[in-house]
Design a protein that fits this description.
The protein has 927 residues and is an alpha+beta fold. The protein has 5 domains: 2-145 and 398-477, no CATH class; 148-243 and 514-531 and 555-584, Cytochrome c-like domain (Cytochrome Bc1 Complex, Chain D, domain 2), CATH 1.10.760.10; 248-377, Jelly Rolls; 589-699, Cytochrome c-like domain (Cytochrome Bc1 Complex, Chain D, domain 2); 712-926, Beta-galactosidase, Chain A, domain 5. Helix content is 24%, strand content 23%. The strands form 9 sheets. It has an 8-stranded antiparallel sheet with strand order 25-26-27-28-35-32-31-30, with no helix packed on it. A 6-stranded antiparallel sheet has the order 4-3-5-10-7-8, with no helix packed on it. Helix 22 crosses helix 26. The longest helix is centred in the middle third of the chain and has 17 residues, at 461-477.
């Protein structure tokens, strides 16, 4: 490997000739889907839906090697080939270092073993090859220049952890090629990586990782859905791990963590050499000081700037002079200093200390001629450095060579695969090739040795055989229609979905990679660390959610699963939706049920079943923002947005059928209800109730037993008044719970009836435990929010906008409340000389509580012509009788004692009643 790492530098210096790899040394193109399914003995699945043979394998290779970009095929044949577009090269010069580009074009199979890019110069004589490479490099360099930035050791460590835990290992090998068993294993399904530190800078690799689809739109390299900082960490990891020889001496000293030690008179704890200014070279230790010494060779005299960024104290000296002083205990701080350097070798000393928390050190060098780059790139332990500070001119584009490169880019066929625009116009390929239908046998690109103008792919025997087979069969298959299951398999094999997911008997995490799929909750077993099965996924997920997760990735398992579901891009994965539905979707007409009770009571039953006093789903599943009381499985409030109700129904009856080995217990074992006092123990109704309740999503009321140890207030013989912060009723709320599970909340800031609801009243544990801060939600179900803001206003005309100022700031005065003989409150307030008494009580019909409140407002005061009462605010108000209105399709309001009128108010409707003086208004709320 040392020869391979330094080859670029030696080539630039003209010290070594180009060595071309022999055919035996070339690693064949790595196409994971092909290597996994088409290099073993032919297999026909028991389901007889996919046949794995050389022809289907050849189609996969045709797409991954981009063969049809040169060899034009019919539209019918092209439709069954998932072509991988080559990287877009519009700004290649701003992404990739020139020296790496030169090396890669010269030896693609050596620089990136397993690359699917052919050696397009394979048949050229040595001298012609070198000239062609140089011309192409100068042409591609016209598209930009790479921006550099300093390395950050602590960031690189975080990036290494992300690379090994976030799912990258599903396709790539871990550092050192060591897989889960601790042995060096080169799996044929591994997509090899080049030396990123040679290819990219930290900024350019970060940009690529953040949006790989911009450069590689076919989605073989997806985006992981990380933060910008995390992408930067991974870039730091790769750029910093380039295999350089040690170029810095270090000495480690004990210190108190607040200042530099006495380096000259104190004996070091340890000494050694390291690559760059590595603050971890002496091993982990709190309160450690380091002194680094090395040499900086300078070819061009100039004023240089040294930038020093560190947490805690640091300083840099060149020769005997201090250039930058960043002393003291501080957070991440950047300082810079200038120094004039002549030609020669200059001693460099870097001192650093830290207090053990978040240590970091970054040193960069720049001058008028080149952008800031890590100082570690240029320093050396000896007078014969492997590199030197670049001259001010740096790499200079030769216009003549660039023009020749542009012609070559077209004539060699590079433009057939790669998009590259010059002055807004794409370079067009001028290479003449044979159409796909006219190809014959193992000639041209398929030949074992390159000849003529043919490129060399370095194909394996099996790859060559599959490509020959698909060419031979293409005439008879041209009009053949691909089955939906074949489309699913082809797409999943192309995108390497099988690396993480299993569908039927195919795919799943390979045993050698298994150890890199981790979880934060070991109790969940494989369900908490391995991506889910895709068997029947078209039946499981709603089409709109399937589209969303395919296009944008998913995060529903992020609380416990370390591997991320990446983002492949809609154009690459949307082709899966229709065939998945065609193959997987089942119909379940039996779900059309007639429930025995009103919808709100069915939802209440579902809430009870989910809670801690029944099926206890909340023991394992999060609910909205509330964590579960045990392991933290997928959030229940996301469930109905993700899965189809028919699948949900079947899954709850027999979870093991759909997820063999799942820890999910069967809530209704053998089709029997274990909770028999809910909906008469009817399994169909109970499952439907759970779905109906969860269908409210984030608006679903929190089930019992999830938040704190509840202190439930239960009105039995008389009403209970609860004065506190109530969600939806404000900070001066007064809750009233009536016997019979009818409840309301009054807002004493706005003098309004804010909420009415049924079922349980309030959980006082939030306010009666600890500091008692925050707003408490009503404990029951079927909550109705009533009109916001003050109910009375003085309007110049009926068309004036209703005021939104807080009532108590607009002349209203709260006069408290009185209790009648049954302890039922009447709220009192005054406004504009009018005194209002407002009482709401449940209505009784035939001795039973009816599902309604009767609200009575008694207004006493002088006559006025501009006072209005606003009874309702809603999206839709429909008058169905002289005094009866339907509100938003679920609430019926009967109003007597005033002449009401409906008016539009922006996007809403309002029901207004003019008040001429003393009056009595009665409203019945029925829902």
């Amino acid at each position: 490997m040392p020869w391979q790492v330094s080859r670029c530098l030696l080539l630039l210096m003209g010290l070594t000739p180009v060595r071309i790899l022999t055919a035996a040394e070339v690693i064949s193109p790595r196409v994971p889907g092909f290597e996994r399914f088409y290099t073993t003995p032919l297999t026909t699945l028991d389901e007889a839906v996919i046949t794995l043979n050389p022809v289907t394998g050849g189609r996969l290779l045709l797409g991954e090697l981009n063969c049809l970009s040169c060899h034009v095929a019919s539209n019918e044949f092209q439709a069954v080939i998932d072509t991988k577009q080559a990287p877009i090269l519009d700004d290649i010069g701003s992404r990739v270092h020139v020296d790496w580009l030169r090396e890669y074009l010269n030896q693609p199979h050596s620089v990136k073993p397993g690359t699917t890019m052919p050696d397009v110069l394979a048949a050229l004589p040595m001298a012609d090859r070198a000239n062609a490479v140089e011309a192409l490099v100068h042409f591609l360099a016209t598209t930009g220049s790479v921006t550099e930035s300093p390395l950050d050791t602590s960031s690189a460590k975080d990036g290494a952890a992300l690379f090994h835990n976030a799912g990258c290992i599903a396709c790539h090998a871990p550092d050192g090629d060591k897989l889960g068993d601790g042995k060096v294993t080169d799996l044929l399904t591994t997509i090899t990586l080049p030396e990123f530190g040679e290819k990219y800078s930290v900024p350019s690799l970060t940009a690529f990782l953040k949006d790989p689809l911009k450069v590689r739109p076919s989605g073989r390299m997806p985006a992981l859905g990380l933060t910008d900082e995390e992408y930067g960490d991974i870039a730091q990891h790769f750029v910093s791990r380039v295999r350089h020889l040690p170029n810095v001496n270090y000495a480690a000293y004990d210190c108190d963590g607040s200042d530099f030690p006495d380096y000259e008179n104190q004996k070091p704890l340890s000494t050694g050499v390291c690559v760059g200014f590595d603050i971890t070279a002496a091993g982990p230790k709190d309160k450690l000081a380091l002194r680094f010494t090395t040499f900086l060779p300078v070819k061009t005299p100039s004023q240089y700037q040294i930038t020093l960024r560190s947490k805690s104290g640091s300083r840099v000296s060149v020769g005997k002079g201090r250039v930058v002083d960043n002393d003291g205990l501080h957070s991440q701080t950047l300082k810079a200093g200038n120094v004039v350097l002549d030609i020669g070798l200059h001693p460099v000393t870097v001192d650093y200390f830290h207090d053990g928390s978040g240590a970091s050190l970054g040193i960069a060098l720049s001058c008028d001629g080149f952008f800031r780059q890590p100082l570690a790139k240029f320093v050396s332990l000896s007078a014969k450095p492997p590199n030197s500070v670049p001259s001010k001119s740096g790499f200079v584009i030769d216009v003549t060579l660039a023009d020749k490169g542009r012609v070559l880019f077209a004539s060699l066929g590079c433009a057939a695969c790669h998009q590259l625009q010059v002055d807004g116009r794409p370079v067009v390929s001028t290479l003449k090739t044979t159409s796909f239908a006219d190809l014959k046998g193992a000639n041209g690109c398929l030949a074992e040795a390159a000849f003529g103008n043919g490129p060399r792919y370095g194909l394996s025997r099996q790859q060559r055989a599959s490509l020959v087979a698909v060419i031979a069969s293409s005439q008879g298959d041209a009009g053949r229609t691909e089955t939906p299951e074949e489309t699913v398999h082809r797409t999943m094999a192309s995108l390497n979905c099988y690396a993480c997911h299993k569908r039927g008997p195919l795919g799943g995490v390979e045993k050698e990679r298994d150890a890199y799929f981790g979880t934060t909750q070991q109790e969940m077993g494989d369900e908490g660390r391995l991506p889910p099965l895709l068997t029947g996924v078209g039946d499981k997920l709603k089409p709109e959610f399937l589209k969303h997760v395919l296009e944008n990735g998913g995060d529903d398992r992020k609380r416990y699963m370390r591997v991320k579901m990446p983002k492949f891009g809609g154009s690459n994965v949307n082709v899966l939706i229709e065939p998945l539905l065609a193959v997987d979707l089942q119909t379940d007409p039996q779900l059309q049920r007639e429930y025995p009770e009103a919808e709100y009571r069915i939802k209440a039953a579902g809430r009870h079943l989910v809670g801690g006093q029944a099926l206890s789903c909340i023991k394992c599943h999060d609910f909205n923002e509330h964590p579960s009381t045990g392991i933290r499985a997928i959030n229940l409030t996301r469930m109905t947005a993700r899965v189809r109700p028919e699948w949900f129904d079947r899954y709850l009856r027999d979870p093991q059928r759909y997820r063999p080995g799942t820890r999910m217990p069967a809530p209704w074992p053998y089709g029997q209800a274990t909770i028999r006092n809910v909906l008469a123990g009817n399994v169909d109704f109970q499952i439907g109730a759970v779905w109906m309740y969860l269908a409210d999503g984030v608006n679903a009321a929190v089930p019992f037993g999830l938040v704190r140890q509840p202190i439930e207030l239960k009105p039995i013989d008389s009403p209970i008044l609860y004065r506190n912060f109530i969600e939806g009723a404000g900070s001066r709320a007064i809750g009233v719970g009536y016997p019979g599970q009818m409840n309301l909340a009054w807002d004493a800031n706005d003098m309004r009836l804010a909420l009415v609801w049924r079922g349980a009243f309030m959980d006082a544990s939030r306010h009666w435990s600890g500091r008692g801060i925050g707003y408490e939600e009503p404990l029951g179900d079927d909550i109705v929010e009533l009109a916001p803001h003050a109910p009375l206003a003085m309007l110049a005309s009926p068309n004036d906008t209703w005021p939104t100022t807080l009532a108590r700031d607009s002349g209203f005065r709260f006069l408290g409340y009185t209790l009648d003989l049954k302890q039922q409150p009447t709220f009192r307030y005054s406004f504009a000389g009018i005194t209002v008494e407002d009482q709401s009580i449940p209505v009784k019909v035939d001795g039973q509580l009816h599902v309604s409140f009767r609200r009575t407002l008694r207004l006493t005061g002088p006559a006025t012509e501009r006072l209005y009462y606003r009874a309702v605010v809603a999206s839709k108000i429909v008058k169905v009788a002289d005094d009866t209105y339907h509100i938003d399709g679920f609430l019926t309001l009967t109003l007597t004692g005033g002449v009401a009128s409906i008016r539009r108010a922006g996007e809403t409707c309002e029901l207004l009643v003019p008040v001429l003086g003393s009056a009595s208004i009665i409203q019945d709320y029925v829902w």
